[in-house]
Design goal:
single chain, 132 residues, alpha+beta, three-stranded antiparallel sheet, 23% helix
Length: 132
């Protein structure tokens, strides 16, 4: 059994839940008893792509320096490549590519977006844009 911690998403707004002090809520994600951990690894990969480098209290070496990338206009593709290498063994194939245009958030700030395409070990295709 494996366990990770991920930020909780508010289904009504699609944004991360925060407490009164502005800190994120964290949820535990475990591998299922069925033996197919594909969704667990997708969750872990997605969380790593959405984390700012050093943000996680549980995985301090994970994440992407998005703010620096937007400020300097230099995409953090090296960090994304390291994340791809870290998670590739858990899928039949895993491709992460940067979406050419920065995505505008609801608050007017811009964010980098990466397209994740994976063939899971059960043969299922997963494709999703992940905005950091």
């Amino acid at each position: 059994m494996a366990r990770i911690f991920g930020r909780a998403v508010d289904p009504a707004t699609g944004t991360f839940k925060r407490d009164d002090d502005g800190a994120y809520y964290w949820e535990v994600v475990d591998t299922p008893d069925t033996g197919d951990a594909s969704q667990f690894w997708i969750t872990a990969l997605t969380q790593n792509l959405q984390l700012v480098l050093g943000e996680s209290p549980f995985n301090g070496n994970s994440g992407v320096p998005f703010f620096d990338a937007v400020d300097t206009q230099v995409p953090p593709d090296l960090y994304v490549q390291l994340i791809q290498q870290k998670y590739a063994p858990y899928f039949l194939t895993l491709t992460i590519t940067r979406v050419p245009q920065n995505q505008e958030r609801a608050d007017g700030t811009f964010a980098l977006t990466y397209n994740v395409t994976a063939v899971l070990k059960n043969g299922e295709l997963y494709q999703q844009n992940i905005t950091g």
